[in-house]
Design a protein that fits this description.
This protein starts with 7 loop residues before the first helix and ends with a helix. The chain is built from 16 helices and four strands. The chain folds into two domains: 355 residues, no CATH class; 58 residues, no CATH class. Helices cover 64% and strands 4% of the residues. Helix 1 packs parallel to helix 5 and helix 14 packs across helix 15.
């Protein structure tokens, strides 16, 4: 505990999402939850440790990738029609995409601490997944096709993607750990068992986006781990799916209908897909109006009706899981890239998406050539690929939003420092080569300058 106590706020940021959302609180947008408070504590601990000189040092590339988004956010806020209304969006984006990732990069000192942080995702996924399976079995979940069977965990029907997201995170981490050649066999077997168990709640979430993102991330992780290992895991996952859906008939009709609908998003889309297309078109129209800086942070809801067609419905219906019927308004395009483009323009999108692309490329290169701590690379790349894929049809919002910052932080920890494969710290982690890093305070100074 004396060595690892700075990681307690990081673990709390993840595990505090086990707490249920209060019944009837269907709308979580714009609210500060317990996980946000834990992330604030994480950033505060990082600042104190930085002043005491007890954090890792950042390479110039890390300073650039983690600091530039703050500049884009500052520009979008200053140029918004109502800068004061955009200020909460600036704080939220700064928290998720700058401060939390930077705190993780600075505080996580070696591969052992990285594994502790990644393990919290598996614990969260197993507990939330168990709650979701019980909800399906007892018909106490969120409403889906007239039945209260949709697994949503403790997030409630107001955040139907919450459980699917955290379960997918845990499944990706467990799959990567099961395939990592450097971990003990017992750990790999436990991770493989956890991955198989998490398949069921992910299926019962009926989330098409989570299925697609998880499949893509898992296939990439398998490919990076080796073809022979990939084939074994793929065979096991396929067998588990056949047994669960085909053998036991777990949600077979609903799952089949949901899978079929993926191929009908262009030929015969349902109302949710039609609404999404309409909001995508509205986001593009906003961007064309102000291509450089967008309409400003938090500006999409205010400008939606002026750019959306009549095909947009008034909202989505939510009910079940202990909550009464609520009609939630559609306040975002459900595409992170289009949301950033419409609200922050090309400047903001280049700053954010450019940094994510840099993390992905650097992470893949380091993962391919990694020796020690390769499991960390598989986990980091897998989680980042899942998140970037999910951003194609989802955006930030809800209690699990802060986990996006944790994912980016873990990916940055692996990808950014220019480590030498031979320079290990004796615990599976790696040290920065001398002369290649800059003081961590420079990142805070760059972010503060951009904010001003």
């Amino acid at each position: 505990m004396r060595r690892h106590w700075p990681l307690l706020p990081l673990a709390a940021t993840v595990l505090i999402l086990l707490a249920p959302v209060p019944a009837g609180d269907a709308s979580t947008s714009g609210k500060v939850g317990p996980a946000d408070a834990a992330s604030l504590l994480l950033v505060s601990v990082c600042a104190v440790q930085a002043l005491r000189g007890r954090v890792r040092e950042l390479s110039p590339l890390a300073v650039l990738v983690l600091g530039v988004p703050a500049l884009g956010l500052a520009v979008a806020t200053a140029t918004a029609g109502d800068p004061f209304a955009a200020l909460p969006g600036f704080v939220r984006y700064l928290q998720v995409f700058v401060l939390v990732p930077a705190a993780i990069v600075l505080l996580v000192r070696d591969a052992g601490e990285f594994r502790l942080a990644a393990g919290c995702f598996v614990v969260l996924a197993l507990v939330q997944g168990a709650v979701g399976v019980v909800q399906y079995a007892t018909h106490t979940g969120a409403s889906y096709q007239g039945e209260d069977v949709r697994a949503v965990g403790t997030f409630g029907p107001g955040d139907v993607m919450g459980m699917a997201t955290v379960v997918a995170y845990g499944l990706v981490v467990a799959t990567a750990a099961a395939l990592a050649p450097g971990l003990p066999r017992r750990v790999r077997r436990l991770a493989g068992a956890a991955a198989l168990v998490l398949v069921l709640p992910l299926v019962l979430s009926f989330s098409r986006g989570a299925w697609i993102a998880t499949a893509g991330a898992a296939v990439l992780v398998m490919g990076l781990a080796g073809i022979r290992r990939a084939l074994k895991v793929l065979a096991a996952l396929t067998a588990a799916g056949v047994v669960l859906v085909g053998g036991f008939g777990v949600g077979s009709e609903m799952v089949a209908e949901r899978l079929t609908s993926i191929t009908q998003v262009s030929s015969a889309p349902d109302q949710s897909v039609t609404d999404r297309y309409t909001m995508w078109a509205a986001a593009e129209s906003m961007w064309r109006e102000r291509p450089a800086v967008g309409v400003g942070l938090k500006g999409f809801p205010a400008n939606r009706d002026g750019h959306a067609s009549l095909g947009l419905s008034s909202g989505s219906d939510t009910a079940g899981a202990g909550q009464a019927y609520v009609r939630q308004p559609l306040l975002s395009p459900h595409n992170m890239y289009l949301l950033v483009l419409s609200e922050q323009g090309l400047i903001g999108l280049t700053a954010l998406a450019g940094g994510w692309a840099a993390l992905l490329v650097a992470g893949l290169r380091r993962c391919v050539g990694a020796g020690a701590a390769r499991d960390c690379g598989l986990i980091a790349v897998g989680l980042l690929v899942w998140q970037l894929t999910d951003f194609l049809y989802a955006d930030i919002g809800g209690p699990s939003t802060v986990l996006t910052g944790v994912i980016i932080g873990l990916a940055a920890w692996w990808a950014l420092p220019s480590w030498d494969d031979a320079d290990t710290d004796g615990r599976g982690g790696r040290r920065m080569p001398s002369g290649s890093a800059v003081p961590a305070g420079r990142l805070a100074g760059a972010a503060g300058t951009a904010a001003r």
